Sequence to fold (102 residues):
Amino acid sequence: MLELRPTCEHCNKALPPASTEARICSFECTFCHGCVEGVLQGVCPNCGGGFVPRPVRPAHDWKNGNFLGRYPATGKVTHKPVDALAHRELVGRLAAMAPHER
Fold:
């Protein structure tokens, strides 16, 4: 079950459960669209993977109790701004590879 983390790990921008700006990697590292495209250049600073839009969990119980009220988003903030120099080196090694090839 996705945690639906509440903020961007880099800039700490609010990313509520219904946000279409949230991006996640396969380890659920969570960043805003702006940081993924600008600062991170599509490379996760924690694992080197790529990003996809984070799904939005339904706010209403449309079927079988699978909704935000029963499975709420986490309130735990993970704020660890990216080290620009270290990330530039990582991007230099990985940018030429498509995310599915990393």
Remarks:
- The mean pLDDT is 97.
